[in-house]
Fold this sequence. Notes:
The protein has helices at 22-27, 53-66, 81-92, 116-124, 134-141, 148-155, 163-170, 191-196, 198-202, 232-238, 254-257, 259-271, and strands at 6-11, 32-37, 74-79, 97-103, 158-160, 185-187, 216-221, 242-247. By secondary structure, the protein is α/β, with parallel strands linked by helices.
Amino acid sequence: MPGGPGRAVFVHGLFGRGKNFTTAAKALAETHTSLLVDLPNHGESPWTERFSYLEMADALAATLREGFAADGPVDVIGHSMGGKTVMALALLHPELVRRLVVVDISPVRSPETGEFPHLLGALAGLDLTALGSRAEADEQLSGPIPNPVTRGFLLQNLRPVSRASAGAAAGAQSTDARPAAEARFRWQPNLTLLRAELPAVGGFPDLAGRTFGGPVLWVGGTRSDYVTTEAEPVMRTFFPRERKVMVKGAGHWVHSEKPEEFAGLLRAFLTAAE
Length: 274
């Protein structure tokens, strides 16, 4: 997204997409031009055969070197799974990162990957061959996922497909005996892989001995359990210049639940003097 002379890269969490950070990017428009990244197996990015934070960090580094960070280090913001990806990026490729913002995640194993086993299981339970509309999907998910905001976040990934391509898109995810070509919708992210790889998503790569010396803002939500006191020593070991801020009343999706507070934190941190 075009903006000021600074450069900001936003990296989403599990089952998200770069566009989830549109509001935050607009809030930085006076000072930063923003890049909204779709990680592998999400959004417009290709699917892979396995999940690896190291591989995602290396792929992101290659993309930045080719363009957005070609003229020097950039500011990088990552939420949840994206937060772990950008932490790995900063530790493996520190020359690409000026300042780092890590949103509601820690460089340790997450607590049973939070509610995602339940959420992705509910999505996998939808019969895509019998689904007639997104409204039907919303209704069917209202029981297992009662929070309408969470359902809306997940259902942004449900995409209509043509009858000609429905079999390839939805066949592997359907248990219906009818021809898969009848499916009218597909999951844009790689639901099958991501659900199977949740243990890897919840982990963090072994990067012992590496540190990032730049400024780091560590943002958590007071209603979330992904940022804990127990994780603080590990965070400081990797990122000795970290500063932790807990946003009152926010859950895991801090940037969408408290957009004004989050934007204010970003502006203050990214424009502060060294």
